[in-house]
Amino acid sequence: MDIYEAIKKRYSCRDYSSKPIEQEKLDRILEAARLAPSAKNLQDWRFVIVTDEKKRQELAIAANEQLFITTAPAIIVGCSNSEHTMRCGQKIAPIDLAIAMEHIALAATAEGLATCWIGSFFPGKIHTLLDIPEKIEIIELMAIGYPADKEVRRPRENIKTIVCYEKWQF
């Protein structure tokens, strides 16, 4: 699958097959994250892969009781060990992690898997559950697995409503 097809095919899956993810596929997906760009090449991301059923259930509760993520055979907990801020004032951690997680989402799609970004969660509960040190920031969770639902295509803005050239023209 080429990159444009993966981009068009990716969606937020909310129901997963119980089929486990083959380790070779997971390795390729995580390699895609490892190759993501990062500010100052800090490569500040860290990923905790949770496959244990009991821990996935506890993660779902810590994720604002979004129980659908328990159907995914794996949940990726995206963390950062950076406290740096870019000159523009933006924190590096969420930006670098978002880039790496989207690499994961697109690579997973290319591998025939589906993902869902999870941004609603209680970091303190996850720190405790996964023994993540307090100084490490938990940025995002991502459910990943073989989809059991149908692709849901959400409407997108027309390109002319989101792009202008040379100056602000909205």
Name some characteristics of this structure.
170 residues; alpha+beta; NADH Oxidase; 4-stranded antiparallel beta sheet; 6 helices; 35% helix; globular
Summarize the helices and strands and which ones pair or pack:
Elements: H1 3-9, H2 23-34, E1 45-50, H3 53-62, E2 74-80, H4 92-110, E3 114-118, H5 123-130, E4 137-145, H6 159-162
Antiparallel strand pairs: 1-2, 2-4, 3-4
Description of the structure:
Helix 1 (3-9) packs across helix 4, helix 2 (23-34) runs antiparallel to helix 4 (92-110) and helix 3 packs antiparallel against helix 5. This protein has six helices and four strands; from the N terminus they run H-H-E-H-E-H-E-H-E-H. With 170 residues, it is α+β, with helices and mostly antiparallel strands. It is globular and about 50 Å long. It starts with a helix and ends in an 8-residue tail after the last helix. A four-stranded antiparallel sheet has the order 1-2-4-3, with helices on both faces. The chain has one domain (3-149): NADH Oxidase (3-Layer(aba) Sandwich), CATH 3.40.109.
Second rung of CATH, namely the architecture: 3-Layer(aba) Sandwich
Could you tell me the mean pLDDT? 96
- The Rg value, from CA coordinates, equals 17 Å
Could you name the CATH homologous superfamily? NADH Oxidase
Structural domains: how many: 1
What is the name of the CATH topology? NADH Oxidase
**Per the principal axes of the C-alpha atoms, what is the gross shape?**
globular
Major sheet attributes: 4 strands, antiparallel
Helix content: 25-40%
SSE class: alpha+beta
Tell how many strands the DSSP assignment holds.
4
Instruction: List the uncertain runs.
Output: none
The level-1 CATH class = Alpha Beta
